[in-house]
Amino acid sequence: MITLDPMILSGYAIAVIVLLIGLIYGLYKARKGERK
Amino acid sequence: MTFDVLDASIIAVIMLAVIIVGTRGFKYSRSLVNYFLAGKELGAIALAFSIMATYFSAASFLGGGGATYLYNLGFGAWLTAWHIVGVVLMWILVAERLFRYASKTNIISIPDFIERRYESRAAKAVSAIVMMFLFTLYLTSVYKGGAIIIATFLNTSFEVGLMLLTIPVLVYIGLGGLRAAVLNNLLLGSLMLLAAFLAFGYIMSAVGGPLEGIKSLQEMTIMDKMPGSLWLKLNGAGPSRAMEIDMVPYLIMGVTFSISMAQVALPSLLMQFYAAKNVKVIDGGRLLGPVLVAAYAIAVFSLGAFCHVILDHQLTVSEVARLMKDPDWVIPKTVSILAPSGVRGLILAAPVAASMSTLAVTLIVLSATLTRDVVQSLKPKVSEEKLVALARVVPIAFAVISLLLTLIQEGIIVEIVAAAFGIIFVCFLGPITIGLYWRRATKFGAIASMISGLVIGLYWHLFLYKATYIHTVFPALAASLLSFFLVSLLTKKPSSKALEPLG
Fold it and tell me: Quick count: other Cβ atoms within 10 Å of Cβ B39?
């Protein structure tokens, strides 16, 4: 069984979550810009 | 490592291609705005690729890729995480504000921004000096990775490798300025991403995928004494001294944070936002920029640990120990075993491409600083034609100085970049990034922030970093931000005219 430190896993998890937040915010700003 | 004619010819084609692209920018680079800011006509794809390629130097592929051969996988995980945090913050917090500011004020360089924002020639002068000093030091690490690969490919000396890396860059930025650099960055950035995916694909298929690779690593014993499970714990594998004093997690967090967060205040990235065609370009870049950085980071930064599974049974214990001391060679060595001729050349062209793209924009930023902020400030009557001619040749002077420094330096690439990047980030985080938002920031606060960041950063890195393993960025950032806020609050508010372009 693989035992990967949660502190390592949380690094990868933060990477994915922050990227998703960035993309959602980017889409929101782009849509808002189009409406103006 | 063996490379054949096909591998070497890939490097030759790249060198030729970047010069040809450079010639295309020549007729568009005859005014200062056109030379330094590509006529302010950059689109989203070009801008996002250029910023990614400028930011990632050879160290990202060699040092970043090989680092987890020495450090545990936590280094790769947190280097990826902080990179994504940094790039998202840069595109969300800085890009649009700085673009709008530049559009309203017609600034060209970063010291121009400092002068206009703080209404101070002294702050501008300090920022120009700090930038020229730190970027010249930083360039020494940029050269290294690319030149070492060229020298190995072509079976020549490191010095010849340096020349072959630098001359094409000087030719194309001399001819086409930022337009040539950005067009080339689109080409070189695409090559870097392709190489990252190929390296990831070859290494992962060799170990049977990430999970199987981790399992094999866990069951290994590295150098007959270290259990492979040490690579799966944040407080596991790392430099031996840091392991002895139980500082590996702090070291990993310090190094990865300082390299990655530099994105939010690195002048060579931020100046490119001035060159966007319109705000829609920023909207597009906000989506594409983080994806590019994330794709590269995820593909490259965790590869080194898996290379133990591939390389170690083919090496002696002392060869593994030598590689762990200088992990920059881990990826080239692994790729040269796994990939066939031609593909191997394509993958290992990535650090050369990465060096060229970083070198080009950094030299343009240095040229803008000297031409615009020093020469034009001291002699305002010099014609624009003469200034553009000067701007084309100034990179040669900076290239020569940093080449000489490169020849007398030692050390692994990632550490040098960490120090220079870290201190640049520290010096400009307050004056540029926070200064875009905090209206109370004053010229004295900005000057105090830059000087204290530089002095504390250098002192800590030279005398205390190796003894404490507390990364230079943290004490330097504390000193720089403390002085930025305190001195700003204690000195006279900026005038409303100075704050007008902030909106």
Answer: 18
CA B360 – CA B166 distance, rounded (Å)? 9
| Residue that is written with structure tokens 């920018």 in the block | B25
Determine the distance in angstroms separating the CA of A14 from the nearest CA of chain B, rounded to an integer: 6
Q: Residue B222 belongs to what H/E stretch? A: strand B221-222
What is the domain count for chain B?
A: 1
Mean pLDDT by 10 residues, chain B (503 residues): 81 89 81 93 97 93 95 98 98 97 94 96 96 89 85 86 93 93 94 97 97 96 95 96 92 90 95 97 97 98 97 95 93 93 91 93 95 92 94 94 78 58 92 97 98 93 84 94 98 93 89
**Helical spans, DSSP H, in B119-230:** 121-153, 158-207, 210-219
Q: Two tokens at B81?
A: 């995480």
Rounded-to-integer distance, Cα B226 and Cα B69, Å: 13
The CA distance from B71 to B240, in Å, is 10
Longest C-alpha distance within chain A, in Å?
54
Q: For residue range B126-165, list pLDDT tens digits in order.
A: 999 999 989 988 888 888 888 888 888 888 898 999 999 9
Taking any CB pair shorter than 8 Å as contact, residues of chain B touching chain A are: 72-74, 77-78, 80-81, 83-85, 87-88, 91-92, 211, 214-215, 218, 229, 232-236, 249, 279-280, 283-284, 286-287, 290-291, 294, 297-298
Q: What is the CA angle B361-B362-B366, rounded to 5?
A: 115
The parent domain of residue B329 ranges over 5-502
Side-chain-side CA neighbours of residue B183 (13 Å) = 21
Q: To the nearest whole percent, how much of chain A has pLDDT over 70?
A: 94
Please state, as a whole number, how many other Cβ atoms lie within 10 Å of the Cβ of residue B121: 14
Q: What tokens were used for B381?
A: 């009557």
- Residues whose CB falls within 8 Å of the CB of residue B466, separated by 6 or more in sequence, listed in order: none
Domain containing residue B131: CATH number: 1.20.1730.10
Residues of A in contact with B77 (CB under 8 A): 8-12, 15
Asked if B184 contacts B394 with a C-beta cutoff of 8 angstroms, the reply is no
Structural Rg of chain B based on CA atoms:
22
Which bin fits B108, alpha (ψ -120 to 50), beta or left (φ > 0)?
Answer: alpha
Which helix (DSSP H) or strand (DSSP E) does residue B226 occupy? strand B226-227
Closest CA to B358 of B36, B138, B109: B138
